[in-house]
Amino acid sequence: MKTVVVQNKMTLLYFKKQLPAILLSAAVFMFIITFALYPLASAAQSSNEAQTQFETQTETQAETKSGLESLAEINQENTFDVMSADAWMNRLSNTINQVSFEISYVVSSPRRETMPYVWRRARMENGDSAEQLSLLNGPGFEQIRINNKVSIFEPGFTPLSIRSDFIDGPIPNAFLNNPDLLKAGYEVLLMGRNRVSGRMAQQIRVISKDKSRYQYNLWLDEQTGLLLKLNMYDLQGELLEQMQVTQLSINDDVQQYFYNIQAEQLPPVASTQATENQALPWTLEFVPTGMQKVTENLRRISLTGQPAEYMMVSDGLVDVSIYVMKASDASQEDIALTTDVTSIVSISDGRIQVTVVGEIPLETASKMASSIVLKSDRP
């Protein structure tokens, strides 16, 4: 088996989850390798960016009052236990969903350049929920959400919209909107107070119960409850990726940005044909603790048109896709590679080829791929 470690800019966040099947073809394998040719950020630059100073946006007295009143309402509605990690995670979710804010942050990793983002979210006066995420480097990548419609704009691709209640960005949705999803597969631990970018924060550690997935450290602002910093580590404790806030503003003026967006000018929702679940002729014997089967059906590989049996499992924080096809239809040799935090393993036993794709350690992806058992082989 060939093991390769490559880097990937990972700017196509939507296509990361919507089209993982293209990784099954040799053409896409070469596409990934092509991305590896982008130059790495210098060590000095990474060091400076890790020490990014927090800048608080200057606000008027009325704006500050509005934001603090909203936070006070959240705290009054909930009995808050400052010694509970779950309470802090729920406070993050409540704040995210009930106040209007604008946050600038950077995402960096040891193997690729730093990517700056601006993230806006607002609860509109008419009750609508609005959100926007923009990548500030390069030609631009932007997502805009109005209620459950997410519009995606990427240079080189036709703009489109999908149905979703959240934007798919660098910060996992489970942390922001549904922390209860973590309970089955992870331990959530309160580590105490720390200072991040000049502000006091509560540090929270998220560790998979069976040590089969990456671990996370979050730092939540004590004053607002919002996320100031997020680190992702591999199984050996090495830093894989870091997100850090550089500017944060809570105020209702963020709503003005969305008033300028004409909903009728956003691209229409892409039509998709619903696929019903159907039993597959194989089983997945190894599943990390807390992961459950979300869907299983037949699909066709987008580039080749070849049929593949598909299953997705999830623990609420991480989704993993498994594809099984006839070995005679496979167009590439066995591979095991990582692109930043995503692992891709493809192996064959001469009869079937199994491909596993997900933001999990390479060891876990390999173990899952090797655990496929054909039902016809059972005694």
Please give a handful of descriptors for the protein shown:
Phosphorylase Kinase, domain 1, 8 helices, 39% strand, globular
Question: Can you tell me about this structure?
Answer:
Residues 277-372 form the MucB/RseB C-terminal domain. One of its GO terms (biological process) is regulation of polysaccharide biosynthetic process. The chain crosses the membrane at residues 21-41. The chain has helices at residues 13-18, 26-35, 43-50, 61-77, 85-98, 173-177, 255-259, 362-370, and strands at residues 2-6, 55-56, 101-109, 112-123, 129-135, 141-146, 149-153, 160-163, 186-196, 199-208, 215-221, 227-233, 239-250, 282-284, 292-300, 307-314, 319-326, 335-339, 342-348, 352-358, 372-374. The chain has 8 helices and 21 strands. It is of the alpha+beta class and 379 residues long. The chain has 2 domains: 2-37 and 273-377, MucB/RseB, C-terminal domain (Phosphorylase Kinase, domain 1); 43-265, Clam (outer membrane lipoprotein receptor (LolB), chain A). The strands form 3 sheets. Strands 2, 3, 4, 5, 6, 7, 8, 9, 10, 11, 12 and 13 form a 12-stranded mixed sheet that branches. It has a 7-stranded mixed sheet with strand order 1-18-19-20-17-16-15, sandwiched between helices. A two-stranded antiparallel ribbon has the order 14-21.
